[in-house]
Amino acid sequence: MLRIETLCLEKGLRMTDQRRVVARILSQAVDHPDVEELYRRSAEVDPNISIATVYRTVRLFEEAGIIARHEFRDGRSRYEQTTEDHHDHLIDMKTGQVVEFMADEIERLQAAIARRLGYKLVDHRLELYGVPLESEA
Length: 137
Hints:
single chain, 137 residues, alpha+beta
């Protein structure tokens, strides 16, 4: 059983066959698909699944804290499974590709800035937007 499906069961969510399909698609995703892409992939597995079912399932998983929604300035909500491991995102403005990264120096700097301003940092989300260096020439 894949991680999202396991989390759904642990949280007591009723798992229909179609919810299981969406859970599997999300668990296997190496990108950050939007609902339309999730629907396309889900329909390849179960041609009877509707886009409304995918929307409802995504909303349910998000409300349960199983997946996270991101807005990467492209007008689409994109999703990924939540993890214990924190990471940030670099978005390629030409292709829309999302690169996940972890940088200890950024984490330390953010915590230091929060402390300097009188706060303890409890959460953050960092999104960087760029173009490939070779495209500047």
